[in-house]
């Protein structure tokens, strides 16, 4: 069995930004299930790697790549096959000015991911957000911006 370490958790997230499916499959199960918090069109369960990667693609498209993720801490229970990471996201819509504070234009949240691992791969993940993060996410993914105009993804 592949050892579950903080470094393996970091490598799993790093694999996602490569776009290299072979690399991603080293860490993520083809049949992964991942639950996103909120009350918007991208909330709920994503079933299968393609479904999950599609959601990640929507986030990248909405930001034009103007998003950063910082891992603040990682806890690992090797025996249980579970990792928990605390993270911070900071991103802007593609058209937003740097420093924008509107939740329709800037996504700033902190939360946790609880990941269940099997045979060295993530088979299930759940995300939870701190403070008013769910509200921030709902507004970010709203189809209508602060100016009343619809966003397209």
From TrEMBL:
InterPro entries recorded: NTF2-like_dom_sf, SnoaL-like
Signal peptide: none
Span of domain SnoaL-like: 9-124
One Pfam family recorded for the sequence: SnoaL_2
Gene3D superfamilies: 3.10.450.50
Top-level taxon of origin: Bacteria
Name of the protein in question: Nuclear transport factor 2 family protein
Lineage: Bacteria, Bacillati, Actinomycetota, Actinomycetes, Kitasatosporales
């Amino acid at each position: 069995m592949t050892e579950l370490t903080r470094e393996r958790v970091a490598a799993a997230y790093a694999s996602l930004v490569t776009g290299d499916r072979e690399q991603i499959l080293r860490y993520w199960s083809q049949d992964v299930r991942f639950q996103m918090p909120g009350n918007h069109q991208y909330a709920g369960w994503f079933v299968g790697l393609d479904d999950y990667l599609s959601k990640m693609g929507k986030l990248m498209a909405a930001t034009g790549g103007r998003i950063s993720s910082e891992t603040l801490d990682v806890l690992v229970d090797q025996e249980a096959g579970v990792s928990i990471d605390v993270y911070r996201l900071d991103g802007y819509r593609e058209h937003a000015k740097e420093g924008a504070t509107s939740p329709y234009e800037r996504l700033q949240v902190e939360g946790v991911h609880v990941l269940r691992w099997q045979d060295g791969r993530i088979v299930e993940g759940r995300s939870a957000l701190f403070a008013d993060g769910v509200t921030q996410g709902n507004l970010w993914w709203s189809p209508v911006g602060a100016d009343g105009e619809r966003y397209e993804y």
